[in-house]
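Field: COMPLEX_INPUT
Field: COMPONENT_COUNT = two
Field: RESIDUE_TOTAL = 586
Field: MODE = joint
Values follow.
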Amino acid sequence: MIKAVARRVAAGVVVLWAAATAAYLALLAAPGDIVDAIIGDGADTPQIRAQIIAEWNLDRPAIVQYLDYLLRAARGDLGRSYLLQRPVGEVIGEQILPTVQLALAAAVIGVVLALVLAVTTRHRWVRRVSSTAELMLVSTPPFLSGIVLLSVFSFRLGWFPVAGDQGWAALALPAVTLGLPIAGVLSQVLRDGLDRALDEPFAVTARSRGLTERAVLIRHALRHALIPAVTLLGWLTGVLIGGAVIIEQVFGRPGLGQVTLQAVGNGDMPVVLAVVVLAAAAFVVINTLADLAYLLIDPRLRRS
Amino acid sequence: MTIALPRPESRRLTLRRPRPGIAAALIVLALVGTAVAWPALFAGDPLAADPLHVLQAPSAAHWFGTDQLGRDVFGRVVHGARHSLSIGVAATVIAVGAGILLGLLAGLTHRYADEALSRGFDALAAFPLVLLALLFIAIAGTGTTSLIVAIGIATLPHYARVVRAQTLVVRQAPYVTHAVAFGASRTRLVLRHVLPNVLGPIPVLAMIGLGEAVLIAAGLSFLGLGPQPPSPEWGAMLSEGRGYLHIAWWASVLPGAAVTATVISLTVIGRHLQGRFEGRHQ
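Field: COMPLEX_OUTPUT
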């Protein structure tokens, strides 16, 4: 058991290291001088250039530069934005809360909606309608559903604020927009899982004990159906972070998306790198946790 | 760390799929294909402004209404098909091409090189697609070419992993052993015996992947990182129309509907083919 856990954690660390390295290589691959890439559209003075050379160890051998970058990243030091004249950690720290709120709210909406859809639409015809709806949810770009929701509920009906981040009312539409495609994917996976679980011998046994179909579904089949859904946690993180960038733009919300887009537009590489590595870290951590959750759920995996 | 989607029993899936859906998807794709090949068949100049008729609601003269400059939204959607789809197709071609190459390489080299490449795919897959594309655009600058390469790189691990897995199976196959015994050269072995047999699942995956690529491309253009105005790209049109949402929903919602219809159609056909493909191999 301990060996299996250690192996998964080690795999996570390796991927994280590779991701940080990939981001660093991307910076090196930027056209022109690395100092230019780090300055971006910021003020370009000899002092700032000297500061960048000192911070990134650009006067030292390449291997030292790289190892020092990794060490700093491991310590949580995300460098300094020369455009904003502030540490990157501070910039991100200020804007991360609205994005995390949005992502968590969307995740809750997506998971709850998926569970409800998968469990309640077992009947043949309802299920066909529901499958079509899921396909639509998955294929509709979130910026379109966001704009439709905005048009109907904010402009037409005036139920929700049009833009900004004023409490829960402003969170509702963005969270629903981001949660819908997640619900579409998860409920498909859950439904397939339920189908397979209900064909298993244990479902027959449970039925023969006189359990109602609903009880078999909820108490027995659902657990099995949840296992493949857990695998999707890492994917979910990526969708939430990537989607948040677009959704924040649609609804004019503050957050990491705005920070990232501004940084991309101004060529503020330290901020872009930090956001990207942070997103990869979130993905790796959640994926590793999901792998570990597997070990808890399914004893068969503990041995290998 | 791979994401293993459960594989439903494909035969039941195929039977359950409603046929009208496939017919509708084919019709949509045919229309989109025609719009790509010959936009002038449906609509005139997508850039012709008409200051006297701005933000008009859909009517017989302008099926999708007009935008803030009085341009015909339907004409822009039709002409936009070429922009939006060519980005998706080019990105998918890059992803599939590079994915096949890297996947083969990983499947055929020594254990350590394979391990390194596979971890590389894992690392690439750890970045959310949109952010990976943003990183690339931050380095290479905005524009259609960067957008294409960015999406190509971001979606590559998917294909590379599948090709690698297939290669590992194929290289153990008896016909490969026989070819080695007959003294086939390395190049011949890879090109004639391994490559054709690892490509099986790729066309269907690419079809579903194309839908995803079109979706990401529209999203990034919506953020202003793709083709610049006034070019009639669907995502960019949506973004332009966003500012007039309170008075003219059609200028943003209808281009968005074009993206959705295209992606749904690609997905429906792709999944149908996937079902058929897996059914045949069972």
